[in-house]
Amino acid sequence: MLFGSLGSPTSAEPEPAERIVEEELLHVQLEVPNADAAMKIMEMGIEFDHGIHEHDGVYEVEVTATPSELRQLETYGIEVHEVLMTEKQWNERIAEMNAVLERNESAILSEERLQILRANHYTNQSASFLYVEAKSSVGASSSTALTATWTENGVEKSATLARRSDYGEYLYHWFELPVEEIPTSVTITSNQGATATSPVEEWLGGVPKPGKPNPHYVSDFIDSYMTPTQINERIDQLAAEFPDLMEVIQMPYKTNGYRRHAQATMGGFTNTAVVVSSIVWGHEGGNGMEVEFVNPGGANSPLTVSVDENKITVSLATNVAGALTSTARDVVNALNNQAGDLVSANTYRGNTGGGIAQVWSSTLTDGLNGPEYVSREPATVKAIRIGKKKDGSKPGVLGYAQEHAREWVTPLVVMETAERLLRNYAHDAETKKLVNSLDIFLIPMVNPDGANYSFYDYNMQRRNMTNHCGPDGANDFGARSAWGVDLNRNHSVGSIHDGFIGASLSCTSDTYAGPEPTSEPESRNIVWLADQYENINFGMNIHSHGGYFMWSPGAYDANRETLPRPSAGEEAFYWGASEHILNRIQEHRGTVIQPTRTGPIPDVLYSAAGNSADYLWYEKGIYTWNFEVGAPLWNPATNRWVSVGFQPPFEEGHEEALEFANGLIGLFEVAYQHGKDKQPPRSTINPGKGTYKGPVEVSFETSEPATIYYTIDGSRPTFESPKLGLSGTREPAEKLLINETTTINWFSVDPAGNVEKNYNPSGNGNNFNSAKITIK
């Protein structure tokens, strides 16, 4: 054992020298060639900080030494493999730690505020659950622990809440547990001393159903997953069958097509390799083209390229000894110069191509396995428009699916919904009401090229098929399943190009945002539809999987600054409408979208820079949600949630499509009620006008979800005035702290655009609300 006795010197070994350290100490990893060299370390009084490990025949040890000691060790053949820590880094980490401790200590010394944001129960397919969210004003500190207690079957139970943070921001504490009996209340206690109690209410409970259910309502029009070809055939069939209720919108921007150039990599994936691509698409003649690099078998042969119909032969150059001398770069240049009308060539993934090209032969192929009836040409994306009156006079609702190719369930949701609307119209009063009152737009398949690739070539394809990797990147055949743009990262609002996170600029990343915003025709189609039909007020972006139900903001920057949050009134509308939609989903088989997966995107999932729902909300003012179908299933045998995946067995995918079609129709019901709303909201403040001895916090109450516009400087409130926002992430509306005599002027506006008291903020009227708060 080479270093077996070096932990402490034996009598035969010299005592370590006394060290006088005046320089900076560095923590480093050394490469030590042998035992004699290791002994020199000890002779200098330097102790091993960590164990000794052999790596590729060299021994590695960690020590703390000065720069001059390290220079001396180099004379013994000992090299510094890595500097693990400098004194500056150590000081920085200590300072960082102290700053955190100081911040936490300061927060804890302040009076803790503890809120129970949600205390809910729900029953899923196989169990009942208790769900709690609580937020402490000092919850960002890891030393803050929250504990829940409740009574179940006469027995007090407790659970510690988990702290939830995202990108450095504390969101809340939470827990979710199966229960045998629903408790009436739950108490949260902080180890910092605060406590709070809340009644436990049913999640998704108590929402009245519109009308009486029709026992003859028909559903279940899907019996398998559907390819783009099948989807288009079904769309055309429905249009022919229901010409009075449905029309097909041919979207203006054709996709780039389910097609590829035929390719081959000639060589061993190094700087000796040449990537060859056909000029024409594979299906147009590139497939089957032959390329061969040959050894001429003689000395002093030149590099030549010959073309015989569909075969290209490259005779590599040799030297006086008959050895090959053509580099990969030489061959690339020769092919581009002499066969450039048939193929293009480049070195492998940015290599210099300085290695000697290899003798090789290949037949070019586009690698696509779709059957011949699947068109390779640019595709026209079809939108379904359903309504009795399709002239733009009715409130519009948009549902669109399969931006991500591998999400096979999502187009089924849309097709099932379309068939229900059309086939129940004649005999179901509720369906007739929706179709007569709304202008419904449905895009079953935003991304048909990617969907074809997912069905026939690579099931986990997420993006479209556009290859933006240039000749100096991964544009070779081996990278074909890494190409494409994530269409839900390709939009102009909150884009990575503007500094938001949650997307990538790498052309081979699954979240590649594209070379610029809205670079892809599929994304431009969404923008076009929203521009063309200005009556669209609501949208649903349908994805899978995970059982999420979300809305804007969908992106934040590196400082976790999100896109502007909705006002308190807009957020309240999102929550209220969501409850109705989620109840509809639950009706089918009891699937509950969990509270922890419901809310603004950054609060329940992550940042998604450049997503399409953010574009629709911020640019077009369309209330837009994001379904993530495929909620996890609870396994009572293992007491665990089980993920269903992007392409579950059709038995499960079928159920997901049916329940989320319920949810999409629930959105139509929200839009219907919204369209009927002609009643202005009412609002009050608490406390109201009057004289108070000290500062007061003023809260607003509204008769329905509504945005409050207010001023506190005595001026007339307008749409340019401040809007009442949220007090924090997943918290209720903010309160105004009034610490001096102030006149508050305000009015409210509901999501339907009704203004309180029919006040005209753009005019000269003064029928806004006003209250004077006098502080003595």
Automatic annotation (TrEMBL):
Keyword set, alphabetical order: Hydrolase, Metalloprotease, Protease, Zinc
Domain of life: Bacteria
Listed GO biological process terms: proteolysis
UniProt key word Transferase: no
Residue positions of the active site: 628
Domain Peptidase M14, chain residue ranges per copy: 344-671
One Gene Ontology term of the molecular function aspect: zinc ion binding
InterPro entries per the UniProt record, alphabetical: GH29D-like_dom, Peptidase_M14
Protein's recorded name: Peptidase M14 domain-containing protein
Organism of derivation: Sutcliffiella cohnii
